[in-house]
Amino acid sequence: MNTAKPPTFAELSARWELHQLPLPDGAQLRYGWWKQETATHGQILVLPGRGEVIEKYNEVAGEWAARGFAVLCFDPRGQGGSSREIPHRSYIKSFDTYVNDLRLLWQDVALAQSVTDLRLICAHSTGAHIALRLLTDPNPPAPPDGLILTAPFLEFSLATTPWWAQGVIRTVALHVVGRWNTKEYAPGQEDHAYTPFAQSVHTNDPARHEHWQSLQTHLMPKDYVTGGVTRAWALAAYLSNRKLRRQLGRLHPPCLSFLTPDDRIVDGPSQTQVPGTQILLPGEKHELWQAPDGVRTKMWSHIDAFLATLRTQKATPPACSSRRPPL
Length: 327
Known about the structure:
Layout lengths: L8 H5 L2 E7 L5 E7 L7 E6 L10 H9 L2 E7 L20 H15 L8 E6 L1 H10 L10 E5 L12 H16 L27 H14 L11 H17 L7 E5 L17 E4 L12 H23 L12
Parallel strand pairs: 3-4, 3-5, 5-6, 6-7, 7-8
Antiparallel strand pairs: 1-2, 2-4
């Protein structure tokens, strides 16, 4: 990654054609199309993780654009420039709201654009959780040709908690915490503050770590910054994770997942429940798109092979039975 002085937030935003999508409840989603410098044939919807913004994905968007994809990204409700009920912290009563927001964006924005190549979803962490919820819903929308996930959120990480106490924390404690003072921070959560690289649980790459910390601390508008999660968000996430694990068997699009078994933000072992091809990256931290160049090169190698397989499958007509029907 280039370690030169980072651009301003306005310069990062200028790489996108930004819009607002009105939602049925009066809220709005901030979304953007990457400004292409070359012709595109495919399309990819990039779903950020909790607390992230469109501009964090400029590097990734440029890499997808170089592969001929139109790139669509958005700020999920409650973060960035999208509507939020409470400033500076993650609050939601039910993850169904996130799923419904994504359904509308997918149907009214992504599917409204025609493509001649693959149509994909690439989702990280909580974004991966929401994408999986939508695509395994009993009434799913038209699916993408393929799904690429990084560090999917299926459980909270309790890496520092004794195994015998984890079940109590995930059930009793969350229900107790999540039903009182719901808009207050959950225990251990707080406003965003600069984190030195030595304390990072997000990435092993110092330059990318510094870029994101600088973006949050100094560059982007203060009302775009998101700190920790509220009690209500924690309970809603627990209930949604429990629902998602019951319906993962309904996932039909081919899926490539990059998993972080040593993650300290989301649970590592539970990530293996996602169907499809799994690439384990032991020792890597949560934000794989912010990982060192060597790790990202390995990821892109797997992704390019996955895309080649998807294109072959899409170009191959389904086999027809040669058996004659009975007279």
